[in-house]
Amino acid sequence: MSTATEGHPHASHPHAAMTYPNFRVTSATFAHPETSSAQRADLALDGPRLEEALGRVRAEGVDAFVLSTCLRVEVVNVGCDRANHRVLELLFPDTDLPEPVVRFDRDVVQHLYRVASGLDSPVIGEPEVLGQFRSALELSRTTGAAGGMFEKLLQSAVKAGRAARKQLPTTGVGSLALVAADLASGTDEIAVFGAGAMARAATETLRASEPAPRVTVYARRPEAVTFPADDVRHLSEAPKALASFPTIISATSSKRELFDGSVLSEALHERSDQLLLIDLAMPPDFSPAEHNGDLRYVNLDDLADHARDRQACGEVEMVLEGLAGETWTKLTNHQKVGPVISAILSEARRAVEEEVHRFSRKAEIDEAQIAVLNQLAQTVAHRVLHRPLSYLSSAEEGGEAAPILAEVFGVAVDD
């Protein structure tokens, strides 16, 4: 069973050359809790920045995939750890990288399956990550950074994620926002900074709770807030909320801190009670300096620790482990047995053509009848070969059986 902390820092992959001489994949994971919130903020890639970064990687002829969320950055590439080093340099040319968790080959496949399924999320089965995974795959595909067998591997992770979700507990959209709302429960008044998906999820959960607090939403465009709230105000009024509301959930999409640090300090100075400030933003909306017990600050990492739950997933873990093993076997067997399969099919096609030609000369049949006879013979040959060739391409022992079948069918395959 794989967990988020399995893997190891960058190092040569032992036995790599003898185990998987052809198709290789390597991944580097920067995720909670090993990588801090501040470090993840430095690594966050989205939109045009991610597209440009993938373009740099693709220009060097490397297939790569990047998943960037609030709690993780996953970088996967075709090739060994040396190629992974180069991909990281191209993606983050001016960043001092923290130590990632590195995985290889089959372990990469299983990890991707867990990530896409939400098993590696603090809230088990949270739905956002599968959509984020699909979007990241589509961007890698459209930029030309993922194709062929690598694209099929990533697509199989999406399929595994969909399958696993049918067996996992149902969780709402904005899972960490729901955790934040639960943490804030019991308060009469709550302010929510932001108007995106996380802010919406927190607001709707709070207003549906019993007893429901009064929720005031602060947004840059109050007129564009599409979800119900008890009150909606402009974000410029947020400093007043910092000084008066007992609980604030901040979930904006700002690329920098909302206010200068002095704004929060002055607001805290005006308070007579403690402020619970839950920061759902990435990068964080706040970075509180020292305070005198007048602030309880909770960020994404704190929420993830609060939410992490390892129960009732054993069966799903086993299913994903089995699927990952099957996928890796098919990918590596394709490299080993593909030439053998091609050679066997070529030999069968040549034998059919020779025998049809010999028979047609004796029977003196016309061209149309020869075409029908040839098609019939080819169909019979493929039916006879179907089971052994399927075994070659799908069974774990297929790679070992390849040279035996090549000899049995009398075909020569180059090493």
Question: Your description of this structure?
Answer:
The radius of gyration is 28 Å and the shape is elongated. The protein has helices at 16-19, 37-43, 47-59, 81-91, 106-117, 128-142, 148-165, 175-184, 197-208, 238-244, 261-270, 300-307, 314-363, 367-394, 398-408, and strands at residues 25-31, 64-68, 72-78, 101-104, 189-193, 214-219, 231-234, 247-250, 275-279, 295-298. Strand 8, helix 11 (261-270) and strand 9 (275-279) form a beta-alpha-beta unit. The chain is 52% helix and 12% strand. The protein is an alpha/beta fold. A six-stranded parallel sheet has the order 7-6-5-8-9-10, with helices on both faces. The protein has 15 helices and ten strands. Helix 5 crosses helix 13, helix 6 packs antiparallel against helix 7 and helix 13 (314-363) runs parallel beside helix 15.
